[in-house]
Every structure is written in C-alpha cells, then in structure tokens.
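Troubleshooting log. The previous structure file for this entry was overwritten by mistake, so regenerating from the original sequence record. Sequence copied from the archived sheet and checked twice against the printout by T.R.
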Amino acid sequence: MQNRLPEIINPLHLADKRGELHGQLPLNSLVRLSEKLVNNEGVVDVSLYFGRDGRVPFVEGKIETTLFLVCQTCLSGVAFKVENAVKLGIVTDIEYVERLPLAYEPLLLEETETMLLSTLVEDELLLSLPDYPKHDDDCSVEGVAKDIISAFDDLAPKKPNPFSVLAHLKKSTGES
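Regenerated output below.
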C-alpha cells in the first residue's frame, strides 16, 4: 500500500493489476474546484481500488475532505464535509455505457488512455457539491440585508426635503 499518489494513471492497466491507490491530494491543486471555494487549503483523502467485475473494469473507493464554500444565504464561508463513495465502470466506447451494470457510473476512456488522477478526484468532488450551499442553522439574512442597506444609506447624498417648509408652516399655524 502506497501513501504517495501518482500524478498520471492508466485505469485499465490498474484494473488488470488490481491496483490500489491511497494518499492525499492538496485542494489547491484542483483548479476547477478551487474557483468555487472560499478557502482552498487542506487535502483530499483518496482511497481507490481498481479491478474487474466479470468483464467490466472498475474503480471503487472513497474520497473524503472538507470544503469551504460560500453560503448562498449570508455570503460567508460554510464548511461542507464530503465523504464520497466512488463506483465507476471503465468503458472504452460510448456503446458500452448502456451495457454497464446499474451499480456503476461510466468513466469513458480510450483503451490506452492515461489520465490525471487529480481530474478523476476533482470530477467526483464537483459532482458532490450542493446547488445552494448554506449553513445548517438559520443564518441571518436580515442582518446581512440591514448591513447592505445601511452601507447604501451612508453613501447616498443627503437631500433637503422640499416639503419641510410646509411642515414648518403647519406647526406655526397650530394645525394638526
């Protein structure tokens, strides 16, 4: 069992050899995912097993990390724990996708194709992201809205009220 992950893998070759990969990838090396994070510090724990289920080569395992996303309610950071089970059937032709057992998601490759391990991990993490990340507890939308409104009020120029003269006249005549 190795703790250092290779940069480039050949999934079909690993499936034939019943390979195992265990280790960590830095989050900041996952460029597409980093664009969606508040903070890209940390690592992804990767445990992948390659093998064959009859004639179907597969990748199975687990990817775990904590991602810091932008809460869509209050726009502050929110921790999102990912414990993703990976179960991919490796196919070399689009026709084989339909023949893949239902337990597997397709991983389409050329027969001799190599790929970046980080691409496989990043794709799985991107698929696990929620559409609208938010805190579990009720974060304060009203507090954020009040802060934004008061910031705009502070920036807005103060204009004199043209009816203030009438209000003054009304008070001096004693009308209510």
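The chain is about 30% helix and 30% strand. Archived copy saved in two places this time.
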